[in-house]
Amino acid sequence: MFALVRTWAGWANLALWNPTQILLNPVNDLRIGKLTKKDAGGVKYEFIALEDGTSSTEVKTAVKLSVSLTARYQDLRVAVVMLSLVILPAIAVAGRSACSPLVAYAALNATLNELLLHMFEPAPIDVELTNILGNKPWMEKFIDTSEEYERFGDDTMFRRTTGFNGELAFNVSIDDDNPPNVLLIGVESFRYRDSRYLVGEEDPSNLFKGTNLTITPNFDRWAKRGVAMRNIWSSYPTSRSLESVLFAQVPYHSNTQTGITGGSEQIKLSGLPQLFSAKGYETYFTTGSSLDFDAWDIFLPSHGYDYVWDSEAMAIMAEESLNISPEDWLGDEARGFGWGVHDDLSFQLLGDFLLKKRSEKIEKTAQGETKKPMFITHYTISSHAPFGSFPRWYDEAEKPDFSAMYQGEMYADRIARYLQVRYFTDTELGKFMDRMEKEGILNDTIVVIFGDHGQAPEIVNLNLHEESVTRVPAAIIAEGRLGDAVGLVINDVAEQYDLLNTLADITGLPNGGFQQNGVGRSLKRKATDKRVVFSNDPLRKMAIVRGQQRLRYDEVTESMMLHDTELDFHMTTDLLPFLTPEERAEWEALREDGRSITAYYKKRWDENCLLAVQCNT
Length: 617
Fold this sequence. Notes:
By secondary structure, the chain is α/β, with parallel strands linked by helices. The chain has helices at residues 2-8, 71-98, 101-109, 112-117, 196-199, 217-223, 238-247, 272-278, 296-302, 311-321, 326-330, 343-366, 392-396, 412-438, 466-470, 499-507, 581-606; strands at residues 36-39, 42-45, 147-151, 159-164, 181-187, 227-233, 282-287, 307-309, 336-337, 340-341, 374-379, 445-451, 471-477, 489-490, 494-495, 514-516, 532-534, 542-546, 549-553, 560-564. It comes from Phytophthora nicotianae (strain INRA-310) (Phytophthora parasitica).
């Protein structure tokens, strides 16, 4: 009975239930984290003063800016936790035990087609990768031909990258004697469909509903001054996309945890922080968000970042240098919210820091010291769901009329809130970039802007709108360094895991090359038409994108569907029935590649052998 209900009613899909949606927006629980500095002795807590002449002081106690919750709200949270973590799982397990594998699978995670087409639940995929390229090792299938490397073994992605070759898609001028800073800006819940510049005026899927609107005029304006990527994909959620951004991996595949969960202090990794450390850069991670979620506060300083700022550090600096009072965080001014410090303040403080560091470096250079550039990763937070908090000044400010984008929609109020907060973060991004241009910071800084993942406020269970959630915008801004490439829009398929090789190709490799185990390619080089990327959501589907076609499939079943990402954004027409047997077989082979490389990385995370030729087991 449960299986039949599941196949006819989407609300019965337990894999997509989220009982916490009944909770109030946690605006009264502002958790302010900490700034950390990593040294040879481990991780310690230290405040970096922004004001000249102010010495660093050790932060011995966490700043707790919170308002007591009512007893009723506490009881509600306890009830929700019990419901979601104990009662519902117990019911599901009991139902699963009483049913055949086919019935249970259909009830919990299958479509009607799968229920009718499959007599038995398939066995899990084989994680062993074999020599699928004839006499060549399997790993060469997943490493782009533009990368020059030394293999450490025939059964591992672990290798030493020694260079890059191939026809250029664009070039960035770099002076090896004066290396630029590199700034990555990860924008929370930033989806491709919000950028009119990337969607294009034709808008073939009518994402802007016949209007001439853009939700992100400042991103669009700066993307036009750089090199934009309009066909780049992510994984979901943020912790999984971070694995791709920093370490060029197909992220850990699980619907209960990520590779980062718990901090993963013992896991050996090599990615962007290690690359730039080897090149003599100082490495920073900055955000207005609390970082205790998924133990980022442990993971980041343990895996290559010399300095980590979170919401606590931002709050301390804002109070000391921007005249923000403790009452402003959760009071009428709303300078903070449940996730941390709003983006206007975090961008202001990041800009102040860049200016201060430049002044220090000018003084040190005058004294004969060698310039030490910075690699900074900055993540925004204000546009995190449920999109219910803005600073008071922005709430009262005049804003564009986006009503045409949500009128008549079932969840019009939530869409409206999303568009407002998306425009807010875009406004602050524009202010930051304009200020950095005016101050000359962009003359010696390469900036990469990207969405950490997408969003789908149009529905309750966002995972159902797969392209909205996993297709993101991106742009590389390198003022005075791009030559004729200014304004280039790259349509080649890409993934966040391409950033490692792209930045290594742009800025150069350290002496002796760079050890890594990534699956990305350099976007600085032209791609082939056959290139594919892997973009997975464990709570929904796995996916492969080639060109403008996207194959969605399951981890174990034969079910798969093919859609056109440009003409059919909402996935209404399955293209598989129109393929020849040979074309279908090609996609089926790619599906097996996707399963295999995903399983490879999960196994390597589980056994802590990402940077090893062989695992112990």
